[in-house]
Amino acid sequence: MIHLLGPVLLAAALAGTGMYGLLARRNAVLVLIGAELVLNAANVLLVTGGLLPAGGLSAPDAAGGTAAVADPLLPGQVMAIFVVTIAAAEIGLALALVLLLFRRRATSDLGEVRELGETAPTHDDPPGAGVWPDTGAAAETDRPTGPKEEVRS
Amino acid sequence: MSGVELVFTGFALLTWGAAVLAVTSRQVVHAALWLVLALGGLAGVYLALGAQVVALVQILVYVGAIVVLVLFALMLTQAPIGVHRDLDAPLGRRLAALGVGLSVALLIGGTLAVAVGDRQVRPDLAAGAPTPLGTAIFAHWLLPFELLSLLLLAALVAALAVSRGRASDGTDGTDGSEVR
């Protein structure tokens, strides 16, 4: 037997830690790490809830004997796997966006990205910035210092 | 405290410690590696809760794929190696973030702790085995499962489209010098 209090407190601590990471970090990839922690807190809760008999917390306690039947749908664990899948999709797309941001602005520091969109005053969109430097033409753009200073049109 | 509870507590403390280090580390690569430890510890937590397939999926997808993606992103964005002070927001915002994090933890933890009381459950390894879980997914959860595959496909296509950038002249975008 295991107390439900432990997993619940772990989930709460993970959610709080992830929230801190989301808000306190400036590097975009590290912000995503915080988001992953929050997702995992939700997963812990799902798996924990899956341990309860059908009916959840309102179901009669397991001490009541055979009254507690496990839910054959295993909703908690199935949902946890679904959440992992969604997290995979989310992080793939989010990292693609971070890479795009780095290519356009030469930074992954969220504190420096105040405006988004092409109408933003700081948006420089040099031609060819959108292609990865595996082609000859784009390789001339000096990626580290960024396409920011470079206006070739 | 029973044996399984002891195992759970150990993994939970490991997970939480690694998570704290992952969000406070001043070295980006170390943060990603602490994330590996936190997610691996969570796999142990799932195992202690009897969800063996979920634990395996956690290791396969999170530690195997997502963290590798994160590390790749760190390398590709030329994250600084070594101690770096600019990773965190200024102190004021960090304190605000700490307050928000604490409030979230207290809110969730307090509410759920009151809700569950001193209820105990019996982790059932048999219920988390591949056979019942596979039956549940492919017999009862088939439609959400298929929708998820659509979601993954959409995310894959979107990631490709985003990272390829705008095709300059409507072709495959290989000519980067083309003025759009």
Q: Evaluate the radius of gyration of chain A.
A: 23 Å
* Shape by Cα distribution of chain A: elongated
Q: Biggest interface: chains and residue counts?
A: A-B, 93 and 105 residues
Largest beta-sheet details of chain B: none
Structural class of chain A: mainly alpha
**Distance separating the two termini of chain B:** 67 Å
Summarize the main sheet of chain A: none
Write down the overall mean pLDDT of chain B: 87
Mean pLDDT of chain A: 78
Q: Give the SSE string of chain B.
A: HHHHEHH
Multimer state: heterodimer
List keywords for this structure.
heterodimer; A: 153 residues; mainly alpha; 4 helices; B: mainly alpha; 71% helix; globular
Helix and strand arrangement:
The complex is a heterodimer of chains A (153) and B (180).
Chain A: E1 2-3, H1 5-24, H2 28-51, H3 75-105, H4 136-139
Helix pairs in contact in A: 1-2, 2-3
Chain B: H1 3-24, H2 28-48, H3 52-76, H4 91-116, E1 120-121, H5 130-140, H6 142-164
Q: What does this molecule look like?
A:
The complex is a heterodimer of chains A (153) and B (180). The N and C termini of chain A lie far apart (70 Å). In chain A, 52% of the residues lie in helices and 1% in strands. Chain A is mostly helical and 153 residues long. The radius of gyration of chain A is 23 Å and the shape is elongated. The longest helix of chain A has 31 residues, at 75-105. Helix content of chain B is 71%, strand content 1%. The radius of gyration of chain B is 22 Å and the shape is globular. At the A-B interface, strand 1, helix 1, helix 2 and helix 3 of A face helix 1, helix 2, helix 3, helix 4 and strand 1 of B. Strand 1 of chain A pairs antiparallel with strand 1 of chain B.
